[in-house]
């Protein structure tokens, strides 16, 4: 199913206050306190804030109760503080046993530098529970280096159902229908699509899907493989042109460059009726629930997959986004601590762990989660997202996570120039080809 109108009870708003936020999203609470030097046994550093903190803490507490002689000591940090601290700790060989990460190029760098260990043999049970496309996010060269620890995060289309009814339109399922909707909403004086252009990575999601729909997953695989002139693929050029066509058509209004995703301003434009559509990660669902519970409860929030592109080479079922976040095991700790941490990971995703995800509105990364989703407060949204993830032949990791950090920053800067119409498709390709090593 590619679209479904949301009609969800107001009772979920309380749970939504704890819902998973985007990996680059809004402010999070301060850490509980400074960490202390690791003693004997395994240790873990986690992030504060949201449903995830509660899920992780509950999981560690259950492990420690069941394994009092092998307790895992935990310390908790706000997002930005953690990123700085873990980089220093890994570089100095003082990392915790369990390292929290976002996958992608950073995970590969750690694996290739022998900073984390191959846990393939010790995690077969938990990997067998995972949707294969999600498990792949923690696999480097056929070896497991990371185990997902949160819900999966595909990028989805959110829309204001009331505005669509007002102009007598159905949510677009093809690119041509999307262009027609843009014209219709502009004629009605409604911004067609909310876009937080000040955040850059929000622009990127449009190119990710367009390249996928037009050229298929092989196009970005060539880019990741550093193939010469990979950014000059016709699918990339066509995708940039299509994105700029949207800008020229007024799809995002006149002020999208000043809208920030960090402040959830793009979500607000939709639930306040100022914009009709929004392309965002699944984490935006929690923001709608928290910021506009009545809007959701009244059935005004719609969610759908990205439109198909006629004659495109990509499978319409393919998705982009973040497979998950991951735990990895540090190579710097003792063999006993590594063994305990690996065994802990192999016990993840029991019913209690997955149920906590469902209760918080996160899309489970495990097979067979239908029974837990059915009857939940978030059933409609979770079913749609879960089905998309399960049925997708390809789940492309967000480009800024898949590429090395320096390349990712260059990419974000140039994508922003694409949306401000400051560079042509060919100039964009030239700028990005220069990053290929």
From TrEMBL:
PANTHER family per record: ARABINOSE-BINDING PROTEIN-RELATED, BLR3389 PROTEIN
Entry protein name: Sugar ABC transporter substrate-binding protein
InterPro entries linked to this entry: Bact_solute-bd_prot1, SBP
Region forming the signal peptide: 1-27
Keywords: Signal
Native organism: Ancrocorticia populi
Pfam families: SBP_bac_1 (PF01547)
């Amino acid at each position: 199913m590619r679209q479904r109108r949301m009609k969800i009870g107001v009772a979920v708003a309380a749970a939504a206050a704890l819902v998973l936020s985007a990996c680059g999203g809004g402010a999070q609470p301060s850490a509980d306190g400074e960490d202390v030097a690791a003693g004997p046994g395994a240790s873990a550093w986690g992030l504060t804030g949201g449903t995830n903190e509660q899920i992780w803490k509950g999981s560690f507490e259950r492990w420690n109760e069941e394994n009092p002689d092998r307790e895992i000591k935990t310390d908790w940090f706000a997002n930005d503080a953690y990123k700085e601290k873990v980089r220093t700790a890994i570089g100095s060989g003082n990392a915790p046993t369990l390292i929290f990460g976002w996958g992608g190029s950073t995970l590969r760098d750690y694996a290739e530098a022998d900073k984390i260990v191959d846990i393939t043999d010790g995690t077969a049970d938990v990997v067998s529970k995972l949707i294969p496309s999600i498990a792949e996010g923690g696999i480097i060269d056929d070896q497991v280096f990371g185990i997902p620890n949160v819900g999966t995060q595909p990028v989805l289309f959110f829309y204001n159902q009331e505005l669509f009814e007002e102009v007598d339109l159905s949510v677009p399922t093809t690119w041509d229908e999307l262009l027609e909707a843009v014209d219709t909403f502009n004629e009605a004086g409604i911004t067609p699509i909310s876009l937080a252009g000040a955040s850059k990575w929000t622009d990127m999601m449009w190119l990710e899907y367009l390249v996928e729909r037009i050229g298929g997953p092989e196009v970005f695989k060539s880019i990741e493989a550093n193939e010469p002139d990979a950014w000059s693929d016709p699918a990339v050029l066509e995708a940039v042109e299509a994105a700029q066509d949207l800008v020229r058509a007024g799809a995002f209004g006149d002020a999208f460059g000043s809208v920030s995703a960090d402040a959830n301003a793009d979500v607000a434009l939709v639930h306040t009726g100022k914009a009709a559509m929004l392309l965002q990660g699944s984490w935006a669902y929690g923001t709608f629930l928290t910021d506009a519970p009545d809007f959701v409860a009244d059935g005004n929030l719609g969610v759908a997959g990205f439109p198909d592109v006629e004659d495109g080479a990509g499978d319409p079922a393919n998705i982009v986004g973040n497979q998950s976040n991951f735990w990895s095991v540090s190579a710097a700790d003792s063999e006993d601590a590594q063994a305990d941490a690996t065994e802990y990971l192999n016990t993840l995703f029991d019913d209690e762990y997955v149920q906590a995800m469902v209760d918080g509105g996160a899309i489970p990364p495990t097979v067979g989660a239908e029974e837990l989703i059915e009857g939940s407060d978030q059933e409609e949204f979770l079913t749609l997202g879960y089905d998309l993830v399960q049925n997708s032949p390809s789940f492309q990791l967000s480009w800024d996570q898949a590429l090395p950090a320096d390349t990712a920053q260059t990419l974000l800067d140039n994508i922003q120039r694409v949306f401000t119409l400051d560079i042509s498709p060919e100039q964009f390709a030239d700028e990005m080809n220069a990053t290929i090593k």
